[in-house]
Structures are given as structure tokens and as C-alpha cells.
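Hi F.,

I've been meaning to write this up properly since the lab meeting, where we talked about keeping a consistent format for the predictions we share between groups. The idea is simple: the sequence comes first, exactly as it goes in, then the C-alpha cells exactly as they come out, then a line or two of notes. No screenshots and no reformatting. I'm using this chain as the first example so we have something concrete to point to.
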Amino acid sequence: MKTNLLFLVIFLTCSTTHAQISENFELWVTGPFGFHIPDGWTVNNAEPTRPVSVRNEDPYSGTYALQLFSEGPSFEGRAPGRAFRKFYATTNDPISVYVRVDSLLPGGSAEIVVYLNNSSLTTLGTWSSTTVTSGYVNAQVAIPNFSAPDTLSISLVAKTTLGPLGYDGYAVVTFDALGQITTSTGEPGANDDFSLSPNPTTGLFTFGNGQTTVDQAVVTDLQGRTLHTFSNVREINLINEPPGMYLVHLQHQGQYHTKKIVVGF
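Output, unedited:
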């Protein structure tokens, strides 16, 4: 139990914030050990031989989804597989997540926990299931006691149960289409002029919901090669670029940000 709680505290403390939400798990980055994780999330059981990014066959929810396994790091057996992310939320609307429970053994379950991101990690709402599903189900997590605006953390779990001899059970759970967080993921006072919308895009995207003209924008590929340079621009169209992920380096009112944009999906 101590091991499990320690990982929870570490991951929620280290979770980073970004000015865009990877709601549909479409933006992925390479972790320090060569595995892929969804941008902005912390995942405790990703590895090169067991990626948590999976191809999604349901077109409504984009190309990729997040799949967790009950194989978190532990000396006590198959600990829960977890993913965490911190958000700055401006409403207390229910959190919506599409969940597909792929496999379960007794003691295993799927779980979503929403925490108030304070020193005690106060639980705001939970959802759990011990039933294998044939497809996605829409899990709604009510957070009526959340006083917006404030920071909250979302934990997605392929859970097991800690018994006297270690963890019991096993679960494989796929999560997708996180929604109903009407926010940027920045802290209070964050500058939304650097947000890109829509993202992913078929090519055309704007800054700050179309209301901002940035001083300079440089588009590069992931290897850092410059593809386009723009000045005093409100929108950019990359429809002629091959589908994939690009970096947009922005300068505006003395601030510098780098954002990822997914094109062609």
C-alpha cells in the first residue's frame, strides 16, 4: 500500500501543465526511456515493449487511445497501471471519459479518480467498473464540490487490489475522448494567446481562438528544420504539409512558447 501511495504522490506532484489539452490522446511524446506517452500526462507503466499508445478503431475518437495495464512498478506484484494529468478547470461540470475494459481477472477493475490538486489530494469524484465491455462506455465523474476555477488532477487506472501477499487481479483498460474540461491547462493567469485551435487540424489553425495576432510564428518539423516563418499572423494553413506532428515556435508580446500541432487528421 505504501508503494502504491508513493507513486500516486510522485506522479501527481511531477505532472506538468501545458496550454493545450490532449483530450483525445492524439499528441504523443517520447519519454526519457524511449517509450511514448500522451503529451502532458505521466504514465507509470509505459515501456518500449508495451506501449500505452494504441491504434483506435472507433473513428469518433481520433487515431489513438491510451491503454493501461496492471503492471505498475512494485515489489508486491502487479500494481495498478496509472496515468495522471493536472488541469486548471473553470467549471465543475462532470468529467467525461470513454472507457473500454478489455480484460479483467478477479481483483482487477477500471477506475477514474478526480482529485483537488492540493497538498492532501482531496478526492472530488470517482468512477469504477469490474465488467469487461465489448466497446467504449461513457464514464461520467461528477465533481459537485469542486469550486471553479481551480486546479484538479485526473487519474486513470487499470487497478488491482492489494491483499496480504501482494496485489490480486489484473486489468487492461483503454481510455479515450476525455472531455468537458472547459479550460486551458495553464495555471491561473496563463496567457491563452498561445493556444492553437483546432488541434488536431486538417491544416488551418488559429491562435487564441482566432482572436490573437502573434508577432512571429516559425513552423518546424520534429527534427528542428524550419518549414515556414510568419510575421503578424492570426492563422496558419499547413494543408500542403504531409500529415504528422509539427512544432510551432511563437513570439508574442515578449513571450516565447513552443506548441505541437497535429496536421492531416
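Notes:
The helical segments are 2-14.
The domain at 192-263 is CATH 2.60.40.3080 (Immunoglobulin-like).

If this format works for you, I'll send the rest the same way.

G.
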